[in-house]
């Protein structure tokens, strides 16, 4: 079935939808108000609904000038409802809809949190197809405003600003606009007039409103299943966010993490003991397993219950992007070896492989099917089970050719993939971070072993591995091995600010303008970071990201380069 929506204003839409229910298949109607942090309607706002984790095919409804909205869908099961508005952070509310029903809810969005310094604001827009790698800086003027003049081929120009919020790599609308338009990514574009082939972008610090307040979601029926689902997910998201905020702060202090997960564990266990709804019990089991994993306190009982009580057809896989990882973790704790990593035994891996194949067969969402098959493919590869590897690989690439999971598996395992052991390193051309007139290519390293490290400052695992990368550089330099880090950040300034902190990265640095849209990144089929490529002195690839993470980074590189280093 495909989603059904009438593109009417909120005031007109709700009566029309309700009247149509007697003639149309049963629909779920979501209606209420969407307001800004100050309690007033926003300049432009929308509500979006889609099924499962992927927003492809989302339906969208314009919010009325009074802040009222109504949107309808024939879908049931796991739904995502996203609320967006000018000057505000978007918010996505997951709903588990068991049957067609009317859901009333009121939402207040959180206003953008602007950065304290405006000296590194850049703009993207029509002139560069909104490419992050080609952002242009705004320049401070004597009157305190920041401006940028760009060429325009039409009588209007659309743009967004980077570096204006505390969230790195986030492009948003600025305060100056003749009008706004949705950017299909949760934010809005400024649209301004252009004259004589030019337009001037202006950012006046005095026009930036700093409105306090957090996201507020209120359901008209607080005892309904959808309201209870939201409260459980919102509570755990807040606890999880506090953990990762504390982790980042500890790294900034050069200190070990000291975060007390006990209150969250106590709350989840108490909620699980009193909950009678089978679906909500499944949700709580997912959250409890995730919480014990973060706390480093393995709970084999909770893990075994998750494995036993959450069937492959569970709808929570459609709302929890970490659901498959939680299942992997549960098998590791319940059936793995002892120790902090809970490595799965061969027997446990086969049981998990069977579970992922069953999830792929039972789930209705194509993206979940693809991700489950991706996990199954790598497990079968690790087990040297050629029959199941070939079956799962073919099911993935033929059944889900457009999935990011398929592209990732092909980049890692396809026989003709660009980066694979034993073949010459393909050509590449990356500009030096601090001087774009200088380029790094395979010829730069002719006759020498080298390691390419693809990363970004916004990549959590990349930053986590920094201490190991620094240690590897110190040891490998003595063996004549060169390290080149290639940044996929939005701008070179992001890397400069990062290197001004704890991690200096005192080795050659390059910048891949356009990130994953960079032509060389695409040619090398790099679909995720961190990615590491080890190349021997003869120019042949010796390893591609074979578990070279954390403590295994240096030993992995050394093993790959045996016989290809300078004593």
Summarize the structure in words.
The chain has about 575 residues and is an alpha+beta fold. It has 15 helices and 24 strands. The strands form five sheets. A seven-stranded mixed beta sheet has the order 19-18-22-21-20-23-24, covered by helices on one side. Strands 8, 9, 12, 13, 14 and 15 form a six-stranded antiparallel beta sheet that branches. A four-stranded mixed beta sheet has the order 4-1-7-17. The radius of gyration is 26 Å and the shape is globular. It starts with 9 loop residues before the first helix and ends in a 7-residue tail after the last helix.
Descriptive key words:
single chain, 567 residues, alpha+beta, Immunoglobulin-like, Serine Threonine Protein Phosphatase 5, Tetratricopeptide repeat, 4 domains, 7-stranded mixed sheet, 6-stranded antiparallel sheet, 15 helices, 24 strands, disordered N terminus
Q: Return residue spans where pLDDT drops below 50 for at least 5 consecutive residues.
A: 1-22
The biggest beta sheet, please? 7 strands, mixed
Q: Strand order within the widest sheet?
A: 19-18-22-21-20-23-24
Q: What's the mean pLDDT score?
A: 88
CATH arch. level architecture of the largest domain = Alpha Horseshoe
- Classify the secondary structure makeup into a structural class: alpha+beta
């Amino acid at each position: 079935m495909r989603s059904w929506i009438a593109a009417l204003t909120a005031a007109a839409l709700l009566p029309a939808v309700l009247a149509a229910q007697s003639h149309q298949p049963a629909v779920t109607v979501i209606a209420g108000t969407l307001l800004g942090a100050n309690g007033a309607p926003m300049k432009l706002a929308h509500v979006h609904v889609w099924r499962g984790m992927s927003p492809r095919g989302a339906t969208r409804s314009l919010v009325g000038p009074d802040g009222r909205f109504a949107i309808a869908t024939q879908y049931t099961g796991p739904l995502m409802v996203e609320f967006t508005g000018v000057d505000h952070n978007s918010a996505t509310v997951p709903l588990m809809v068991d049957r067609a029903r009317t859901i009333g809810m009121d939402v207040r969005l959180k206003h953008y949190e602007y950065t304290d310094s405006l000296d590194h604001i850049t703009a993207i827009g029509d002139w560069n197809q909104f490419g992050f790698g080609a952002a242009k800086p705004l320049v401070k003027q004597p009157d305190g405003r920041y401006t940028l003049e760009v060429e325009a081929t039409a009588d209007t120009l659309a743009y967004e600003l980077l570096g204006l919020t505390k969230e790195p790599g986030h492009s948003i609308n600025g305060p100056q606009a003749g009008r706004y338009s949705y950017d299909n990514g949760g934010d809005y574009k400024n649209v301004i007039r252009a004259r004589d082939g030019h337009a001037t972008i202006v950012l006046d610090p005095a026009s930036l409103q700093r409105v306090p307040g957090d996201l507020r979601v209120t359901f008209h029926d607080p005892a309904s299943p959808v309201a209870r689902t939201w409260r459980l997910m919102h509570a755990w998201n807040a606890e999880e966010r506090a953990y990762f905020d504390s982790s980042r702060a500890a790294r900034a202090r050069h200190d070990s993490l000291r975060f007390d997960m006990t209150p969250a564990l106590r709350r989840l266990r108490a909620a699980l003991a009193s909950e009678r709804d089978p679906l909500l019990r499944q949700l709580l089991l997912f959250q409890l397993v995730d919480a014990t994993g973060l706390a480093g306190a393995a709970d084999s009982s909770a893990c075994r219950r998750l494995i036993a009580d959450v069937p492959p057809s569970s709808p929570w896989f459609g709302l929890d992007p970490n659901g498959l990882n939680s299942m992997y973790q549960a098998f590791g704790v319940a059936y793995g070896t002892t120790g902090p990593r809970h490595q799965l035994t061969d027997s446990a891996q086969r049981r998990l492989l069977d579970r992922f194949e069953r999830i792929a067969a039972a789930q209705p969402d194509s993206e979940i099917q693809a991700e489950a098959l991706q996990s199954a493919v790598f497990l079968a590869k690790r087990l040297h089970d050629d029959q199941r590897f070939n079956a799962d690989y073919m099911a993935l690439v033929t059944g889900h050719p457009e999935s990011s999971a398929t592209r990732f598996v092909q980049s890692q395992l396809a026989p003709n993939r660009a980066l694979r052991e034993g073949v010459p390193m393909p050509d590449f051309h990356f500009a030096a971070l601090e001087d774009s007139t200088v380029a790094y290519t395979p010829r730069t390293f002719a006759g020498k072993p080298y390691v390419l490290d693809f990363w970004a400052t916004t990549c959590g695992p990349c930053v986590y591995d920094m201490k190991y990368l620094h240690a590897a550089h110190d040891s490998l330099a003595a063996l004549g091995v060169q390290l080149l880090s290639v940044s996929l950040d939005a701008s070179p300034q992001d890397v400069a600010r990062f290197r001004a902190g704890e991690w200096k990265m005192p080795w050659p640095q390059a910048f891949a303008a356009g990130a994953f849209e960079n032509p060389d990144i695409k040619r090398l089929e790099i679909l995720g970071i961190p990615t590491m490529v080890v190349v021997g002195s003869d120019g042949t690839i010796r390893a591609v990201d074979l578990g070279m993470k954390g403590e295994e980074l240096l030993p992995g590189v050394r093993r790959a380069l045996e016989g290809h280093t300078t004593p």
